[in-house]
């Protein structure tokens, strides 16, 4: 067993055997540079120098019925996070136009909550229609949607459906008790069956093991999701994970590299927690770890300055921002 053998398999798009996966997990940190180099090569073989960019708006915030332990928007926790109902379609489209002004064309509308009622569904459809008519590719992250709701939204111009599984089936009950893992898996299946671009990933540094991380990656692969967002825990005061230690940067890099080996042909997007783990100084180390995409700007508000800084840094790292992927 060697890193080279695992690398060759991943380059050919073959699944890694259990012993390959274990070899990568057990690799000592003094070989981290070698591992990252292999992961970056696998990513380049599939995606060239392109780095897919997307931006989001927090279109409905707070008072969520669910109790995900990392989340500031849960109504079960005491985090000091904004609370507001669904923004108007005009406000959402205006935020999309701002992102478009910075060259980003994949735009996610994110709303807290488990299920979507009729009134919010009409609001999402109107916003999606407005975004699509401007030439943007609208994605929606709004909890669990059923077939008929996704059909309405797809007809309005929806391109992508986002629903994270967050972690493995076995660790999930320690993170959330208000709904089941199976409900989330079914939501992802529904998105795939609807023919949408499905983006589903997880959050890391919440107490999960390497085995949990592997289980999640392999399930996402088997479900057929095209894009896997990777979030790192940013412990928020008032949530049950407020005192949790942030992941070490080396562990985060190794995790992204492992995901590239396990998911050689899927988009891997670095989303929340990048600066929490790496700081402003080191945050671009992730660009050489096998990732193929990045969420830019502020995560829950719009900030043109942040987008421009990201774009300049991506180009300086020798990558080409791919605005609509
Ligand atoms: S369902 Fe989403 S918004 Fe609600 S608590 Fe969980 S992660 Fe937060």
Describe this protein's structure.
There is one protein chain. This protein is of the alpha/beta class. The protein has one domain: TIM Barrel (Alpha-Beta Barrel), CATH 3.20.20. β1, α4 and β2 form a beta-alpha-beta unit. About 2% of the residues have low confidence. The structure holds iron/sulfur cluster (SF4).
Which helices and strands appear, and what pairs or packs with what?
Blueprint: H1 3-11, H2 18-26, H3 32-47, E1 50-60, H4 89-101, E2 106-111, H5 118-133, E3 137-141, H6 147-156, E4 160-162, H7 172-175, H8 181-193, E5 197-199, E6 202-204, H9 210-223, E7 227-232, H10 249-262, E8 267-270, H11 274-282, E9 293-295, H12 304-316, E10 320-322
Parallel strand pairs: 1-2, 1-9, 1-10, 2-3, 3-4, 4-5, 6-7, 7-8, 8-9
